[in-house]
Amino acid sequence: MDQESLAAWLTLQATAGMGDRTLIRLIHCFGSPQAVLAADVAQLVRAGCNKTVAESLRRGLTLEQRRAIDRQHAIIQRLNIRVCSFIDPAYPARLKAIADPPPLLYVTGDWPMPIEAAVAIVGGRRATPTGRVVTEQIAQELAATGIVIVSGLARGIDAAAHCGALAGKGRTIAVLGCGIDRTYPPEHRRLRRSIEEAGGAVVSELPVGAPPLAHHFPRRNRIISGLSLGVLVSEAAKESGSLITAKLALEQGREVFAVPGPVTSEAYRGSNSLIKEGAKLVESAQDIVEEILPQLRTGLLQSLARSHRPAVSGESLGKDDIAVYEVLSAEAQSVDMVIERTGLAAAKVVASLLTLELSGCIRQLPGQQYVRL
Fold it and tell me: Which of the 8 DSSP states describes residue 44?
């Protein structure tokens, strides 16, 4: 976006009383932000603008507001931030079609990005080790087929989704609840760099410098679902903000998926509730791909089938290894539990666990807990 257009967009957004829907309506009517700024009060009112807002627009910004816009310009240039407007050809078509699309997107990383096949993955910030492993595995399988993974860079499930996409050598988009020049939570700066370096993108609708305030995140969620064909909720408690994303997805006509969990676990109350209400139960990436297949480009399902090879081969593993593998599951189990369930000697179980871990069949979690991949 050229500097004149950006200044015009920022001027419109800074005008008192100018909401996103009014702004987009005016752009549709006049064709460009510069044309909106050039219109008189009568023309603006005929286009659906409130008279008070129209008069404020004609008066122009205060000196302090103009200085604030100049500061935003300087930061955008210094950090090489891309700004994509609602009328830009690079603006995602699926997001543009929702009821209240953001007028501007601030982006770092690779943009524009082909995101015709995208799935959002969201969930609780206080994720269990099992929830993180399952989420990462599903995201990895989806990303390996070329599906873009969209999430919010938050702690817990969001971070697992992004990490899984990176492990699958795919692309992922992180949608922030703060200005694009900030990273929240701050400990995810390295993850953010990895996303950008792997050909992914970090996106925000908020102006440069905006802090991560609580009310920003529910609004942010409509972008996560709006970019996607469907939303997977993985390990969400009953009051989780992820359920807001699922609700928005339904309103936008998106598919909703959920990973089931133990009925006694508070961490899965929200996810299990979604399944009772009609969300598709998901145990693997293929459950998602099969549901959204009609909307995907040819070949994605075949790609998934090729990439999802059986984890255990009788030719490479011994009888004890296979016995240990078969008693493991997505639920974390201790070494003692595996010994009890297999009936094998402790030394044999420990040796098999090491073999399976080196083969990429299982993963060790903190506290010497193991899960099957």
Answer: H
